[in-house]
Every structure is written in C-alpha cells, then in structure tokens.
DNA sequence: TTAGTATATAACTATTTGCTTATATATACA
DNA sequence: TGTATATATAAGCAAATAGTTATATACTAA
C-alpha cells in the first residue's frame, strides 16, 4: 500500500503548530467534541485573546472549523480537511484529555455555554 | 487494540522539534541511512554550527544517535528510542528525501566522508 | 609533534512566538 | 433601543528560536 504524502513545507508548518502544548491539547480535545472559547480559557487559565489567537492559527491552516451557536462559537477538528490524515495518527497517540472538561463541570466552573 | 500514549508535554516538545523544516528533513533522511554533518551542510546550504545545533537538539531528546567513524560522526534515527513509535507514522507520511543525497553525488559536491 | 579536517560550543543578533491589555465586533435579551 | 456577554483584533513586550562568526575540541596523517 502506498502511503499518501504531504509536502515537507506544509508538514513542518503543521507540526510547528502542534508543537505548542496548549494547541496540541485543544486539538486532542476537539477531535472528540466541539468546544467553545470560554471553555479553553477556563481549562488553560490564560486570557481569552490568547485562546482566540491559537484557534486563529489552527483555523488559518484549515485544521479546525467553527460553528456559531448564538453568541458562542464552537470549534472542532475539521475531519474533511486534506491534512487530517496527517495529524490523525499523532492525535491518536495522545492521552485522552476529556477529564479536563469533566473537571470544569465538577468545579461548576464550566461556563453557561455548555 | 489499545494505542500506547505519550505524555502531552513530551509530545509537544517532540512536535516542536519536528516543526522545523531543516530538522524534519534531516529526520526523514536519516530514517533510512546514516549521514554526517558535512552532508547536511551541503544539502541545506547553512553553516556547520547551524547543523550541529539542530542535531544537538534532536540528540538531547534521544531521537537520533551518533556513531563516530574516524574524524566523521554519522547520525541516524534512534529506532530503539521510546518515542520512535510516536514519530514513525509522521516520518512515514513525508515524501522521500533521498534525492537530496543523490544530487550531492551528481554534483560531485558530496564530501569525502561518504 | 604538527598541520589539516570535522565537529561542537560560545557568544551574539534578528526574527518569531505567545502572552498581555485595550478595544472592536457580534449576538442575546430586557 | 441599550446593556451584557462572547469572541476577534490590534498593539506592545519578554522569551524563545535559528541563524551567524569566532573559537575550542577531537581525530588523522605526515
């Protein structure tokens, strides 16, 4: 079986994006479910613009898609994207991060949106 | 089948290293064969210290191993390393880069070491 | 021992990165 | 409307990064 390949340039750009712990965790989380910005702000304890900027970079590459629901915007991995097959084996090897969402619920710090 | 996982922290560090085009290409090249520093200097057209510093970072994480042969040091991917299973699916999706070595031979610019 | 070659390390610099605060935009709802 | 909430963008800054030149170290061979 011939593996499909990806340009080196593009691969490097994607790997660099995934090489940030915050973005990598976001990607692992939204590979399973859609999350909104406010959840990430709680989870990572950083400012809202910081999260927005991470999401912007992921979106610019087409790795994530967004869906507005009222005043919230939900982000999830875009599995239709041509590079998803490249990142999937990476995400699959990462430990599940859903406990971070559970923690939010338990603390009651999970915001109104979800 | 249960996939083995890797800590998020470690995964991010490895991906960041691979997120540089020079290092990524080096890794792809030495997944097949051992190469010495002087070859990389020719291939990437950067200074020798620049290559040495890239290799140092890869070695610090244990991703590559070195073998001295006389005055030359040959680098190759360390397939015994515990993280090799993490990076292998990534490298496998990259286009083969061996033509870069062939070009060196054809140009006669491939240095004495090889 | 000495000269030449290969590689590593140190020191410096320009660029990139990820964060912050301040502000703009978009939606919901009284 | 007008106010509150969610998100995006702009601007600025400190830290990290990848390159450079200069120099040190390690090995070869005369």
Automatic annotation (TrEMBL), chains A, B:
NCBIfam families cross-referenced by the UniProt entry: HTH_metalloreg
Domain HTH arsR-type: start-end pairs: 3-102
Name the UniProt record assigns to this protein: Arsenical resistance operon repressor
Molecular function terms from GO: DNA binding; DNA-binding transcription factor activity
InterPro entries tied to this protein: ArsR-like_HTH, HTH_ArsR_DNA-bd_dom, HTH_MetalResp_TranReg, WH-like_DNA-bd_sf, WH_DNA-bd_sf
Keyword Transcription: yes
Superkingdom of source: Bacteria
UniProt lineage: Bacteria, Bacillati, Bacillota, Bacilli, Bacillales
């Amino acid at each position: 079986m011939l593996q499909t390949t990806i340009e080196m340039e593009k691969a490097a750009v994607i790997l660099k994006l995934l090489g940030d712990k915050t973005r990598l965790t976001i990607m692992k989380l939204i590979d399973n479910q859609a999350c909104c910005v406010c959840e990430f702000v709680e989870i990572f304890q950083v400012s809202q613009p910081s999260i927005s900027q991470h999401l912007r970079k992921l979106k610019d590459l087409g790795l994530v898609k967004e869906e507005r629901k009222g005043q919230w915007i939900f982000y999830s991995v875009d599995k239709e994207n041509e590079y998803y097959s490249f990142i999937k084996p990476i995400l699959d090897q990462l430990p599940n991060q859903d406990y971070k969402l559970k923690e939010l619920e338990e603390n009651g710090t999970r915001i109104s949106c979800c």
